[in-house]
Design brief:
The protein is mainly α. It has 15 helices and four strands. Helix 12 runs parallel beside helix 15. The two termini are 38 Å apart. Pfam families: BPD_transp_2.
Length: 345
């Protein structure tokens, strides 16, 4: 039986070492731990509005991170990920309102349901490729929207309210929602980072670059693509369940709007596609623009479009990609670099 050369470890030349981290990444790890611990204490001293803003940013970031995993690393450009975003939100609401389950417990279950439903959906989506795949995923999302719009138990086209939180005090609800959002952000970054640093992550990049060549080297292309598609759906469902828990209301037009994927594409392109830091930078920029400029109506949308055009023309790899090329910044390095023994990066 031949060993997969992509996944196999090759012997190192004498006097060389494989370096997988940088001084910047090690410093970033320490700073990140301090920031997470500080952020975890926010409900003890911060204002409730700050927690709500963080939950919104967290949902943007997680959704953009999953789209980046799917398209930026997996090469599967989808404009229908809102199908799983809305599905996770609706499952969370139904488990809370109808099954009597604590909505906070229902959040990971909603995400799990989105990942499960992605398996049969993939049988349809993976029959298409390229632009047809992108349009096909959009059509699938519209099928989800129309299906939930015709379910009267969840309010039909007008939507419904999450009533399962009525017995929980507002301060407790906001604090727990915030802590769950923080935990979801940390988990999303950690899991995606560890996956991309693994041999499976290398295989995924090989599939993105050339499916035929990757398969000829023994990589199970179909299985890898399905796994990434399911994980991206799980993450999108997690973001949706978290978002509508904080919003307390859901409707088909809000849950399955194509704007969610459009916003994710904007965030990833602005920050830098195919980089873990990209969705984080893009989510912060998008939130700031949405926070301070949304009152300007159509001028706000024109500003988003103008910014996207400027970045794609002058910073083709996104703002973080430009910074990485110019100054060598890499907070989450996934590549392996061969250096002489004793040398530091």
């Amino acid at each position: 039986m031949t060993q997969n050369p992509v996944l196999a470890a090759a012997p190192l030349p004498t006097g060389f070492d494989v370096v997988r981290s940088t001084a910047a990444s090690r410093a970033a790890l320490g700073v990140s731990i301090v920031l997470v611990l500080l952020a975890a204490s926010l409900p003890l001293w911060g204002e409730s509005s700050w927690m709500r803003e963080f939950v919104e940013i967290a949902c943007y970031f997680i959704f953009a991170m999953m789209w980046n995993l799917l398209a930026g690393y997996g090469g599967m450009v989808s404009i229908g990920q809102q199908a799983f975003f809305g599905f996770g939100g609706y499952v969370m609401l139904m488990l809370g309102n109808f099954a009597g389950l604590n909505p906070f417990v229902a959040i990971p279950l909603g995400a799990l349901a989105a990942g499960v439903i992605a398996v049969p959906v993939s049988y349809v989506a993976f029959r298409l490729s390229g632009g047809y795949f992108a349009i096909g995923t959009w059509v699938i999302a519209e099928v989800f929207r129309l299906s939930f719009a015709n379910i009267s138990a969840v309010g039909g086209g007008s939507g419904t309210t999450l009533t399962a939180l009525r017995g929980i005090e507002r301060a407790t609800r906001e604090s727990v929602t915030y802590w769950m959002a923080l935990a979801c952000v940390v988990a999303a970054v950690a899991l995606v980072y560890l996956f991309l640093r693994s041999k499976r992550g290398l295989a995924l990049l090989a599939i993105r670059d050339n499916e035929v060549a990757a398969e000829s080297q023994g990589i199970p292309v179909a299985r890898m693509k399905l796994a990434v598609y399911v994980v991206a759906a799980f993450g999108a469902g997690l973001a949706g369940a978290l978002y509508f828990l904080g919003n307390l209301r859901i409707s088909p037009d809000a849950a399955f709007s194509v704007n969610w994927t459009a916003f994710a594409i904007f965030m990833v392109v602005i920050g830098g596609i195919g980089r873990i830091e990209g969705p984080l930078v893009g989510a912060l920029i998008f939130w700031a623009l949405n926070k301070f400029l949304s009152d300007y109506g159509t001028w706000y949308l024109l500003g988003l479009g103008l910014l996207a055009i400027v970045v794609t023309i002058f910073f083709k790899q996104g703002l973080w990609g430009f910074a990485q090329q110019r100054w060598g910044w890499s907070l989450f390095p996934t590549q392996r670099v061969l250096v002489r023994g004793g040398m530091e990066r």
